[in-house]
């Protein structure tokens, strides 16, 4: 655009005289005149060049090549960055420049949903005719007029929203980042909104992954040690007594049953912690205290069972002993818990927590070298006192390939053995728990203290008025120590007073630790080959049956919403019951539900779970009489009456096992896949087809023998079980599933495996064929008992 012409007037003189530009003809004439006078023409022709040389002489005599190149490189880099930024801004929106975990759907039409540095750009990108944000604000204002939002505080509104379910202490944090659902009376995170299948596996194998497990409940039992042992003896299966556990140095893992009903009447798994002994207490005479940590789906059932058994025990004793009654307390709301798994979980805890100066000796020695939890003795309990994690926030991040401080071979956390001294914690004291639950300083007050320090990033030093948080840390593993595998996961469980979950979660997440949901925890158990509760306990306990029914209803509703042409035709595939396992067909008779059997007062004909160690050394020669003898041996050890011999056939027929399936070759089993046993002849045919074909790809138009065998539908008499969950295993690189099969069916598989040549590849392997409920082809798989 040309500049507007101004008024004519005298031109301004230049600031410095300008050299005239001479024509060539004039220079030649001047040279001729100079030659006539005897002067050289070099000064006239090269006069301009010589003046340039004089100007160059005034420049620096030398140049620093490094500084010159560095300056030019910075300019070039800035130029390239400007080009890329301009190109990116032309093809992307402002909110798309944020990491995926910080993006919000409303940011596309509401500039206030992005950071302040991007709001001006986001506002410019929004169409002027977009009224979505204004409409939403108007609706929110109208809705606020009709409810109690203006008259109640934010806390009161949150309490009203929790009338039908409870929230985790970290609910607000999870609700922004996870899919939430109402389960077991809680509002729990199911899975992150971001992709998490592979990241969760990598975190558990390379770094760390954590969960908020505050929905687990704790029951406190206090009384004389003999009374506590007597109470638990009749309702539990597993070791929980003896010096190994009673001194409080290790946590016990047991199964809880209805009183005197073993092997039936399973309620669910539980963890038992004994309060550590002190030097001034005798392990025999003084009152003891234990904590029973159980899943929320069975909390009420376990609490009522313990209460009923303790009442019956007192009724049998004389009046003089009634003063020593067992006291049961519900500690829900007083304790919160986290679970962190992975090889870096120890380093995460060391960076998040800071020990108080009072923690010296064995505790300080253990915590200073805490690293890979696989090196820690199994089920070890550690009691610690730590400072407020907000004082040293943010903690250092954990790198994926950083070497652990305990890998120097000089000092490891495994060098410290479990002991009562290591497990001592004031968290057992109700008064100390209540005092620790009161947060002394708010975030605003801590920020004010930081502001007074002057230097940004300076950490606060603990004062006498700051909180000291007592916590209990105990080791956990997804695999029993008797059978460790490369697929095992190891970590820790933290118990601490209420009010501190959100502060600890923020620090843990800031280290780079992934926070998982229920799905990630279930997948981790499947990768390790360990059943999780209650997902893998369907039909063997009330909680598992309710879970199975709820999942079946959801799957059936999802199937019914699809049109007939877009959903699986199970009747055409021959799948009679695609939603819930049909154990009545497997057992050879009709069964009733556990609830119906309890209401009618009839003995349950439901399948029951045969637990470890009954399944540790199963042999093909096991008979119903031997099984009954083993069960009665355990019952006699617990002071229970022996079962009559007329029930041996029933117990043998209705016993089921937890198993894991590894597909041989192609294929991946899913949920509710049917498991069919193979006779000795069928087993040889499948092995021959697999070894002969190797893969299912033959010549064009040719069907391999392995595929031909898979297309043949097995008769119902060969059906021995169902899978609970299955998918591709990232640790194994092939299809993997967890499920349950009948004891009789597993023994038949062992008998068929005994016919193999000793020392061969297939010797001793129990083989089955597994077919998905929506599939047409069965796959060959190996079955192993999941302890």
UniProtKB/TrEMBL annotation:
Domain POP1 C-terminal: 714-785
Keywords, in A-Z order: Nucleus, tRNA processing
Biological process per Gene Ontology, one example term: tRNA 5'-leader removal
Primary localization: nucleus
One GO cellular component term noted in the UniProt record for this chain: ribonuclease MRP complex
Keyword tRNA processing included in the entry's annotation: yes
Localization of this protein: Nucleus
Residue stretches making up the Pop1 N-terminal domain: 147-223
Iron is among the record's keywords: no
Protein name, per record: Ribonuclease P/MRP protein subunit POP1
């Amino acid at each position: 655009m040309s500049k507007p012409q101004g008024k004519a007037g005298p031109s301004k003189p230049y600031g410095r005289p300008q050299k005239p530009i001479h024509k060539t003809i004039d220079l030649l004439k001047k040279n001729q005149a100079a030659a006539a006078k005897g002067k050289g023409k070099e000064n006239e022709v090269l006069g301009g060049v010589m003046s340039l040389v004089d100007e160059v002489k005034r420049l620096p005599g030398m140049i620093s090549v490094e500084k010159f190149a560095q300056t030019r490189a910075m300019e070039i880099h800035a130029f390239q960055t400007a080009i890329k930024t301009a190109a990116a801004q032309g093809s992307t929106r402002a909110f798309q420049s944020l990491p995926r975990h910080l993006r919000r759907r409303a940011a596309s039409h509401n500039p206030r949903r992005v950071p302040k540095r991007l709001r001006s750009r986001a506002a410019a990108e929004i169409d002027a005719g977009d009224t979505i944000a204004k409409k939403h604000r108007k609706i929110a204002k109208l809705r606020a007029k009709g409810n109690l939002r203006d008259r109640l505080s934010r806390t009161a509104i949150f309490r009203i929203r929790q009338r039908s379910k409870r929230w985790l202490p970290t609910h607000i944090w999870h609700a922004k980042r996870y899919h939430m659902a109402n389960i077991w009376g809680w509002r729990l995170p199911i899975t992150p909104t971001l992709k998490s299948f592979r990241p969760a596996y990598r975190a558990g194998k390379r770094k760390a992954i954590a969960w908020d497990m505050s929905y687990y409940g704790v029951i406190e039992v206090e009384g004389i040690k003999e009374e506590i042992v007597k109470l638990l003896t009749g309702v539990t299966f597993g070791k929980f007594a003896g010096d190994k556990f009673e001194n409080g140095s290790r946590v016990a893992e047991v199964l809880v049953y209805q009183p005197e009903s073993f092997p039936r009447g399973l309620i669910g798994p539980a963890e038992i912690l004994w309060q550590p002994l002190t030097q001034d207490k005798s392990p025999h005479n003084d009152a003891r205290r234990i904590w029973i940590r159980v899943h929320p789906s069975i909390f009420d059932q376990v609490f009522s069972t313990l209460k009923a058994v303790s009442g019956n025990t007192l009724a049998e004793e004389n009046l003089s002993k009634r003063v020593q009654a067992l006291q049961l307390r519900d500690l829900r709301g007083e304790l919160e818990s986290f679970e962190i798994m992975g090889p870096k979980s120890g380093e995460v805890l060391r960076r998040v927590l800071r020990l108080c100066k009072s923690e010296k000796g064995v505790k300080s020695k253990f915590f200073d070298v805490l690293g890979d939890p696989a090196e820690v003795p199994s089920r070890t309990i550690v009691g610690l006192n730590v400072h407020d994690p907000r004082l040293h926030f943010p903690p250092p991040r954990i790198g994926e390939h950083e070497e652990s401080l305990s890998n120097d071979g000089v000092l490891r956390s495994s060098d410290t053995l479990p002991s009562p001294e290591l497990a001592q914690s004031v968290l057992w004291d109700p008064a100390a728990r209540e005092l620790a639950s009161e947060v002394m300083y708010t975030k605003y007050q801590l920020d004010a203290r930081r502001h007074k320090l002057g230097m940004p990033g300076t950490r606060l030093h603990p004062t006498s008025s700051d909180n000291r948080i007592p916590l209990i840390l105990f080791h956990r593993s997804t695999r029993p120590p008797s059978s460790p595998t490369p697929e095992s996961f190891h970590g820790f469980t933290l118990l601490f007073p209420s009010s501190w979950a959100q502060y600890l979660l923020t620090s843990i997440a800031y280290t780079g630790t992934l926070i998982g949901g229920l799905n990630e925890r279930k997948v981790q158990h499947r990768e390790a080959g360990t059943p999780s509760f209650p997902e893998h306990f369907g039909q063997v306990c009330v909680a598992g049956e309710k879970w199975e029914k709820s999942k079946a209803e959801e799957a059936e509703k999802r199937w019914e919403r699809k049109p007939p042409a877009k959903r699986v035709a199970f009747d055409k595939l021959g799948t009679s019951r695609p939603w819930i396992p049909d154990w009545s067909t497997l057992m050879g008779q009709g069964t009733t539900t556990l609830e119906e059997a309890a209401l009618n007062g009839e003995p349950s004909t439901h399948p029951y779970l045969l637990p470890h160690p009954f399944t540790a050394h199963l042999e093909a020669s096991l008979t119903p009489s031997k099984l009954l003898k083993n069960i009665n041996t355990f019952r006699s050890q617990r002071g229970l009456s022996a079962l009559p011999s007329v029930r041996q056939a029933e117990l043998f027929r209705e016993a089921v096992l937890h198993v894991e399936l590894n597909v041989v070759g192609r294929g991946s089993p899913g949920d509710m896949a049917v498991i069919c046993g193979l006779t000795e002849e069928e087993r040889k045919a499948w092995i021959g087809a697999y070894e002969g074909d190797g893969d299912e790809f033959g010549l064009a138009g040719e069907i391999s023998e392995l595929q031909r065998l898979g297309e043949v539908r097995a008769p119902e008499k060969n059906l021995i079980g169902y899978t609970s969950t299955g998918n591709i295993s990232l640790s194994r690189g092939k299809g993997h599933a967890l499920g349950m099969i009948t004891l009789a069916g597993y023994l038949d598989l062992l008998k068929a495996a005994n016919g193999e040549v000793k020392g061969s590849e297939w010797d001793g392997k129990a083989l089955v064929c597994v077919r998905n409920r929506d599939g047409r082809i069965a796959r060959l798989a190996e079955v192993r008992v999941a302890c």
